[in-house]
Amino acid sequence: MIFAAALAALVMVSYLPFVSAAPFSFPLSNGFPTISNPSTQLTIIEQQAHGSLPSGSLPPTISDNSKTSLRLVAFNELFEVAFFTELISNITNSTGGTQGYEIEDRSTRKTVLDALNAVVAQEELHALNANNALANFKSNPIQPCKYDFPVDAFSGAMVLASTFTDAVLGTLQEVQTLFATDGDASLISGVGSIIGQEGEQNGFYRNMLGKIPSALPFLTTMTREFAFSSLNQDFVVPGSCPNIDEIDLPVFATLTVVTPDIQPKSQNIQFSFDTSKDKAIESRLSGLSLVYINQQNNPVVENLQDVQVQNSTVLFTAQFPFDEATFGNGFTIAAVTNSSGPFSSAGAVANATLFGPGLIEIN
Ligand SMILES: *[C@@H]1O[C@H](CO)[C@@H](O)[C@H](O)[C@H]1NC(C)=O
Ligand SMILES: *[C@@H]1O[C@H](CO)[C@@H](O)[C@H](O)[C@H]1NC(C)=O
Ligand SMILES: *[C@@H]1O[C@H](CO)[C@@H](O)[C@H](O)[C@H]1NC(C)=O
Ligand SMILES: *[C@@H]1O[C@H](CO)[C@@H](O)[C@H](O)[C@H]1NC(C)=O
Ligand SMILES: *[C@@H]1O[C@H](CO)[C@@H](O)[C@H](O)[C@H]1NC(C)=O
């Protein structure tokens, strides 16, 4: 459980396991994710989304690495459809008993539901677009998993939506770069259109939390490995994904951000990880580093301090060198690496990561 993020007035929520409802599972009542093109179901989704799937044609083939990116995009968008479907259900049903999701002000409630009803259909189209592309390239579509969401109130759901949208906004940057370096430039502009779209969404979530809509001048970059790890660690019910093995990305071991309520100041923050699956790591702790990725800047490497090992749990602190102008605002990714770098990119950090990502939100 990774998230530590700011609510309005810097009230922080740390996501710990909740006793929650049954996991979310597909299909939706409209048959999603099985939606033919063309079909009446697709037209209804497009009307709700205020727009259509792209009609342009795709190239005959793409690289295997680009297929990995499309699979991750589909995997993530399916998760988002699940989240927003359940969130809308919680809000619309809140008079019937889903406590924590009541929105008293009628006009605010309508604004929220208008926004989320468009978002869920737009996310369905994002998922269908990625899976249709995979089918075009003679690859299997990614099938949905079952999901649990570590929230039980509307404000927490907005914090979570803003945080996972930041993760997507970082990861799609890398997806664009990989499409370019792998010679699949024709896929880049469609991803750009989704980046802007998800940025619009995040402005809304931030606004609901009393934050300014735009977090940073240059949004934090992320990698596919961190995104895939985070989705699996935080939301996916283990063993519930029919063809997750077709996604050629690692799932790192979990890094927990222990310190709640992280304030915008330079400070030591506490982390933990579990060594029960790799006890040998306990003899190599002095070779590990804690690395932060924030904005478009070079990753920041810190030493592990105050290291304690208790029953297969390693607890430690690391400096969080917050500076309003240069480090730590907005979205930050933390990872424990087996090298002290220096690292010149998020990809270089991911290549040396053993535990991560820890996700931190400030402002
Ligand atoms: C919906 O409400 C249930 C019950 O409180 C909760 O377990 C679940 O996490 C909520 N889902 C979302 C997406 O907010
Ligand atoms: C509404 O909430 C109640 C109580 O939590 C739950 O039993 C029911 O399944 C929910 N209905 C929908 C449509 O989500
Ligand atoms: C470690 O585990 C032992 C045996 O399960 C337990 O008795 C002890 O309280 C644990 N210590 C800590 C610090 O959690
Ligand atoms: C990460 O490792 C892969 C595989 O060894 C390599 O191709 C890639 O260039 C590395 N990325 C960075 C940014 O170092
Ligand atoms: C460091 O970790 C990376 C990622 O798990 C792994 O590929 C690499 O072999 C490790 N290097 C050493 C020296 O342990």
Provide the fold topology.
Layout: E1 3-6, E2 12-14, H1 40-49, H2 64-92, H3 106-136, H4 154-181, H5 188-208, H6 224-234, E3 255-257, E4 267-274, E5 289-294, E6 300-303, E7 305-310, E8 313-320, E9 330-337, H7 346-351, E10 353-362
Helix pairs in contact: 1-3, 2-3, 2-4, 2-6, 4-5
The structure holds 2-acetamido-2-deoxy-beta-D-glucopyranose (NAG) (5 copies).
Signal peptide: 1-21
Protein name: Related to sexual development protein (LsdA)
Pfam family, one: Ferritin_2
Please outline what is shown here.
By secondary structure, this protein is α+β, with helices and mostly antiparallel strands. The chain is 37% helix and 17% strand. The protein has helices spanning 40-49, 64-92, 106-136, 154-181, 188-208, 224-234, 346-351, and strands at 3-6, 12-14, 255-257, 267-274, 289-294, 300-303, 305-310, 313-320, 330-337, 353-362.
